[in-house]
Write a structure and sequence with these properties.
- The protein is α/β, with parallel strands linked by helices.
- It has 7 helices and 10 strands.
- Strands 2-3-7-4-6-5-9-10 form an 8-stranded mixed beta sheet, sandwiched between helices. Strands 1-8 form a two-stranded parallel ribbon.
- A hairpin with a 7-residue loop joins β9 and β10.
- α1 crosses α5.
- This is L-threonylcarbamoyladenylate synthase.
Length: 205
């Protein structure tokens, strides 16, 4: 595993933006827990992320887009899904959707579904826009360990393993709600988070 002189920087750091573009993994705050970020189109970045998290290599990561993200480029939608997106996105909701064909391997691991989230943190969305590509964004932790919520925790845990950590704290220790809409005719709760599933079901007609 590569080693770095880890630097604490802000979301406006050109160095951090270039680092992600160069297929390195960084960490940053979101409106839920602290997260890792890696270029979603890069197999090298994906492999680095798997190594840092000690995560099973066939378990896909969530795709996170910025302000300009277009869901329909990556997944099949219907009116129910569009209604959920218009109501809760950006925000602490991860949607598992039926993936479009021929997406880069790290986004789907050649599976039929893709998990997508748009953060409610405007600075993070702007950062992703500056990178110019959606990111793979799992929680910042070793798999099976509790997620971290601050740059100080991330620095203590991953110093030397990441080139950059964005300074700040997550505004909540509750993760995003995860729902599965990949069948298009039904919605299932995968993980209860900040958004109540009952509120989601009220919008599904």
């Amino acid at each position: 595993m590569e080693t770095y002189e880890t630097k604490l920087v802000s979301f406006s750091s050109e160095e951090a933006i270039k680092s992600v573009q160069n297929e390195e993994v960084i960490a940053f705050p979101t409106e839920t827990v602290f997260g890792f970020g890696a270029l979603a189109s890069s197999l090298l970045a994906y492999r680095r992320l798997v190594e840092i998290k000690h995560r099973p290599p066939l378990k896909p990561f969530t795709l996170m887009g910025g302000n300009k993200f277009n869901f329909s480029h990556y997944a099949y939608l219907n009116q129910n899904i569009i209604r959920l997106i218009n109501t809760y996105v950006p925000g602490p909701l991860t949607l598992i959707l039926k993936a479009k064909e021929n997406l880069p391997y790290p986004m789907t691991l050649n599976g039929e579904t893709i998990g997508i989230r748009i953060s409610g943190d405007e600075k993070l969305r702007n950062f992703i826009d500056q990178v110019g590509c959606p990111l793979l964004v799992p929680s910042c932790n070793i798999s099976s360990e509790p997620p971290l919520i601050s740059s100080s925790q991330a620095y203590a845990k991953f110093k030397g393993l990441l080139p950059y950590i964005i300074e700040g704290e997550a505004t909540s220790d509750v993760p995003s709600t995860i729902i599965d809409c990949s069948k298009l005719d039904d919605v299932k709760l995968i993980r209860q988070g900040e958004i109540p599933f009952e509120s989601i079901k009220e919008l599904w007609r």
